[in-house]
Amino acid sequence: MNSKDNKPTLSPDTWIDKYADYLFNYTVVRVNDSDTAKDLVQETFFAGLKSAKNFQGKSTERTWLISILKRKIIDHYRKINSKKGQAEVRMNFYDSGENEGNWIEERVPQSWENESEKIIETQELKAQIDKCIDALPEKYAMVFRMKTIQEFETEEICKELDITASNLWVIIHRARTQLRKCMEENWFNN
Predict the structure, then answer these.
(1) Residues 19-48, mean pLDDT to the nearest whole number
(2) Which DSSP category does 82 fall into?
(3) Contact in structure between 131 and 141 (CB atoms under 8 Å)
(4) Strands (E), 51-179
(5) Closest to 143 in 3D by CA, of 156, 131, 157
(6) What DSSP line would sit under 83-118, residue for residue?
(7) CATH says 1-110 is which class?
(8) How far apart are CA 61 and CA 19, in angstroms?
(9) CATH 3.30.70.260 correct for 113-188
(10) Residues 6+ apart with CB under 8 A from 144
(11) CA neighbor of 136 nearest in space, from 148, 151, 153, 120
(12) Residue 190 has pLDDT above 60, yes or no
């Protein structure tokens, strides 16, 4: 949107309706935690409001917000990987009893089981995920792989498969729902 003097302007009052779902989906795939994803999207909106005067109109609002979000995601991982960040990340170890409470992550014993057991379990998990993806309808599997594994941009997938962005997100949602069900039935209940 442009004002009368052709200076680019933003419409922050529409951001949640227009971009929240897209930014959340973008984030949750990268951080694999919905609460963290929600927090990062909220931080993105706040940062966008604070730096709105810097918006030059060289990109769309959404692209501008995504660039802010990418920096928030990078900062999130930097914080976790720093010593200070590790000290702030606490792990819930016992839910009840005399040992109830959290451990600071950097003090948690790093290896509790045999390394070869971890490798085997990881391979088995990957094999089960692949089986569940293969069990999806062909179009769902293709879209899911392109978006989440190969990390194609939404626009590229839509162009390649001749579908709309909203159709893509419906397919992704349905694929994830079916994958979750498949994994619950074949992996978590074993």
Answers:
(1) 90
(2) S
(3) no
(4) 90-94, 101-104
(5) 157
(6) HHHHHH-EEEEESSSTT-EEEEGGGS-S--S-HHHH
(7) mainly alpha
(8) 9
(9) no
(10) 133, 136, 171, 172, 175, 176, 179
(11) 148
(12) no
Would you tell me the crossing angle of helices 15-31 and 61-81 to the nearest 10 degrees?
40
Reading the block at residue 26, the tokens are: 């973008």
Contact 1, 13 (CB under 8 A): no
As a whole number of angstroms, the distance between CA 35 and CA 186 comes to: 26
The angle formed by the CA atoms of residues 183, 19 and 39, to the nearest 5 degrees, is 65
- pTM of this prediction exceeds 0.85: no
User: For residue 183, what are the β-bridge partners?
Assistant: none
Domain boundaries, the chain: 1-110, 113-188
- Judge if 1-110 and 113-188 fold alike in CATH terms: no
Backbone angles phi, psi at 36, to 5 degrees: -65, -40
Is the pLDDT confidence value at 139 over 60? yes
CA atoms within 13 A of residue 33's CA, in its CB half-sphere: 8
45 Cβ neighbours under 8 A, 6+ residues apart: 12, 15, 16, 65
Structure-token match 């971009």, residue found? 19
8 DSSP assignment: B
